[in-house]
Amino acid sequence: MDPLLILFGLGVGVLVGATGMGGGSLMTPLLILLFGIKPVVAIGTDLAYAAITKTVGGWRHLRAGTVHTSLSLWLALGSCPGALLGVAILEWLDLGDILLVLVAASLLLTGSLVLLRALIWSGEGERDNIEMSLRHRVAAVVLGFTVGVCLGITSAGSGTLIAIGLILAFRLSPRRVVGTDVAHAAILLWVAAFAHLISGNVDLALAGTILIGSIPGVWIGASLATRLPERGLRPALGIVLLSSGLALLGKAGFDIPAAILVGTPVVLVIISYLLLRRRSEPTPEPIAAAQTVSAPGAAAHASKPHPPSRKPQPAPAEV
């Protein structure tokens, strides 16, 4: 039993519970890069532990009332078949080293989307609830199927890609995005994990070790979901995902200079800090405009003739 794995499980669990993102996107590259786990086993094991972790988090969010149940089920209607197809593709094609490139590409995509969402998305028009019209149901199934295929092949995207879709396509508020995302992922991950288990891609002992840290972590994270500042958390997650994607590309054989591997996250941190600082600065009130508006009134008031002041007359003298 590796204490470092338990610690990583705790940290990733807190992140998943608080943001709905980062489970497969973080744990899979950690298992490959730091622990030398075979990519296909890292993917299957990641899905197995994540299924239990997100079930705990989904139950916590369901009780907190942050889950859009109908939307979660329609997403699962598309994502579960998509995940089975993704696992089948993984088995049929025997991707080998190409799998590392696919996982890296998935991390670069999800990291970019998370970072753009944190730095550019203003959050206008967000809502806590939507009526599931035919258009919304079709969009949910299509989104779920696409993410399911990606998840079945790379184990990444069940949280991040669905969250981006919930924001852009359904305009859900942040607390609803996290709750709905985690609840849907709990359904999807059980299907994908079971398929990988049948294929022999799950290391049960490894998954059990990670769960020792991830279960309490996701419980803590779900409790902190409405308290933690997303302002700095999401950009940090996006930068970590992008850095992990670059590192995996290097492991896959791409000649990426060390300056890019180290310099990219540093530059992104500086840019994120400057943009967030600029957005947090209060907008100056239009004082000049207010003075301009009030000036004519003052002039008009000054131009009005004042009635002549009447001096008090002395009282008549008594005789």
Percent of residues in helices comes to: over 70%
Give the strand tally: 0
Number of helices: 12
Task: Tell me the overall shape.
Answer: globular
Give average pLDDT, whole number: 78
First-last Cα distance: 119 Å
Helix/sheet category: mainly alpha
Give Rg in angstroms: 28 Å
User: What summary fits the major beta sheet?
Assistant: none
Number of domains: 1
Along the chain, the helix and strand elements come as HHHHHHHHHHHH
Strand content: under 5%
Uncertain spans: 298-303, 315-319
Can you tag this structure with a few keywords?
319 residues, mainly alpha, 12 helices, disordered C terminus
Can you walk me through this structure?
The chain has 319 residues and is mostly helical. The chain has one domain (3-280). 75% of the residues lie in helices and 0% in strands. It is built from 12 helices and no strands. It has helices at residues 3-19, 23-33, 39-64, 69-93, 98-119, 134-154, 160-168, 174-198, 204-223, 230-251, 258-280, 287-303. It is globular, with a radius of gyration of 28 Å.
Provide a concise account of the structure shown:
With 319 residues, this protein is mostly helical. Helix content is 75%, strand content 0%. The chain has helices at 3-19, 23-33, 39-64, 69-93, 98-119, 134-154, 160-168, 174-198, 204-223, 230-251, 258-280, 287-303.
